[in-house]
Design a protein that fits this description.
Layout lengths: L7 H10 L1 H21 L4 E8 L6 H11 L2 H11 L6 H5 L2 E6 L3 E8 L2 H23 L11 H21 L6 H27 L9 E2 L14 H25 L7 H8 L3 E8 L12 H9 L16 H18 L5 E7 L3 H15 L13 E7 L15 E6 L5 H13 L4 E10 L12 H14 L4
Parallel strand pairs: 5-9, 6-7, 6-8, 8-9
Antiparallel strand pairs: 1-3, 1-4, 2-3
Helix pairs in contact: 2-9, 4-6, 7-8, 10-14, 12-13, 13-15
Amino acid sequence: MSDDTIRLVTIGRIFARRWRFLAVLGVLGALVGYGTSVLFPPRYTASVSVLLPGQWEERELLTQAEIATSSAVVDRTAATLNWKGVSGGELRDRVSAKATDGNIIKISGTADTPKQAQQLSDRMAQQFVTFAAQLTGDSTDPEEVTGPEALRRKVEETNRRITDLAEAADPGQTVESVQARTALENLRTALEEAMEKLDQADPASNKAGMVVMGPAARPTGEAPPTRTQLIIGGALLFLLLTVIGHLAAARVNRRLRTDAEIAAALGSTLLGTVEVLAAPPAHPPTGRDPRALIRRLLGMDTRWDIPTPRASGDEAGRLIRYRRVCARLLNQLPAPRRLLVVVPDGDEIAHRAARQLVAEAKSNPSPGSSSTEYPVLRVVEVSVSQPMVPDRDTESGALVVLSAGSWTAEELAGIADACADARHQVVGIVVAGAVRARATGSADHPTDNTTLALAVSGHATEGSV
């Protein structure tokens, strides 16, 4: 495959020549996206922010975000919501939390309706704040006091007990009573110093409780992917896959494009290249083949991977190419004789070039030439799938005319073998290419000689397969 397939102009050529096919597939992709949106009902997402006052490190914020979506918080939320058929495991897939700038944990909840999404987010935030307070010992419920707060209460109770013991001690000035009161005061001082160090070491003691920054706003739109996004995404996905498929098919295309490759596949000599004016293909009558009709409607009956035909010169310049091919063919043969012009079936460009070549061979050689007459040519079309060339009769050789980039090496080798089976030597190859007529130039019109060539070609069709 040539480097032309990796250029951006190739993608533009796909859209220019296959736009109807791409449009149909885009509509099909949009329908698939719409069907997907029907199978999956819309969801709504609401979010609420929880402020964490104080100084927090990044890893601590990430830890709090993980706690907000932990199973303990989600299970408590599911119990408070008491939605029918919805457990904590199902809610865990609907909630998320992330740490944002400013020591804020953003909690989001997704549900089937906007009201449920709002309720889910609010309850998640409340349960998160309650659970976090219990972890740090900030809960006001005596039955749920844990951690440093419980230790503080134990210390306060011990201080009160020390005071009671000091008052119950002997108020006298004996050595034993003074030592007892001194020991109790030292114990009280040691406990107070220990609690001060504990408060300094506990980072949670320097941070106020978490605050929910207002209720969650009720969502007004669907959560992505919305129905519109699915429809657009389906259309774009089908278009992208279609373009990739075209490029992949062009990459693995094994059609021969260069003259050297074509000559090597046929095992003969290239006599030259000729030009024919590009013309719209002759469509068969409607109703003959439904598949052909569909291909024509979708624009699949024309090649997209061939470059845009270049601008041609005048008609005289194109005819000179045909005359040079005839002259080289005359020099190639020991004596003028009859030849078959073998054209692959379905190669419209090559068929038009062969007709012009037959018409030129019927004309006289160029003035001043010492040659007698050009060889007599007869056009036959050969199927590339099952090539069959008429047996040798009055013709004693074959001239192959074809267009570049249309046939593989295996197909051309099959044509060469068919010529050999019919005892025809391939005396030469002519490569035809399509060109665009200049805006100021006149298009080619068939001459009388071309009309005679059509009659000769029609006679030869009976002997071809």
